[in-house]
Give the backbone structure.
Amino acid sequence: MSSGADDAPVSARADLATAAVLLALGIAIIVESWGMPRFVVQSGTGLTAPGIVPGFHGAMIVLLAGLLGLRSLRQAGTKGAPATDVGSVALTAALGLIYAVGLIGRLPFWLAAALFVFSFTACFEWRASAGRRVRRLAEAAVLGLLTGGAVTYVFERIFLVRLP
C-alpha cells in the first residue's frame, strides 16, 4: 500500500465505514443491556444490575465511533492523512482473542488482565528506541499489574461481580 496523498480519501472512507459499523454495534449493545433484568424485586441496586457493564461498554463504543466518524470526515479532504495501519488492527485483534480465549478462565482474572495489558502496551511501545525499551517494558509491567488489580477490585468489591 502506498502512503501518498491519494490514500487519504480511501483511509477516511474506511474509517467512516468502521465508525458506522461500530456505532450500530454500540447502539445494539445499549438496547440489549437495557432489556436485561434489573433485580429490583430482589432489592438490587443500579450498580448490581447485570446490564450496567455491557451498557457502559456500548456507550463507550458509541462515543468512540462518533469521534472516529468525525475525524474521518475532517480528514476526507486533507492531504497526507494517515492511512489505516492494518498490522496494528490485526495485532489488536490477535491480542484480544488470546486474552478472551486463551487467558480468561485459565488464569486468575487479575493475572490474565495484567498479562493482557502488559502484552498490549509492550507490543505497541516496542518501536521506542533501544535505550528506552527496558524502561517502556518496566512501565508496561507496572501498568499491567495496576490495571489487573484495579479492575479486579472494582468488579468484585463495587459491582459485586465474581470474576472467572
Notes: Confidence is low (pLDDT under 50) at residues 1-6.
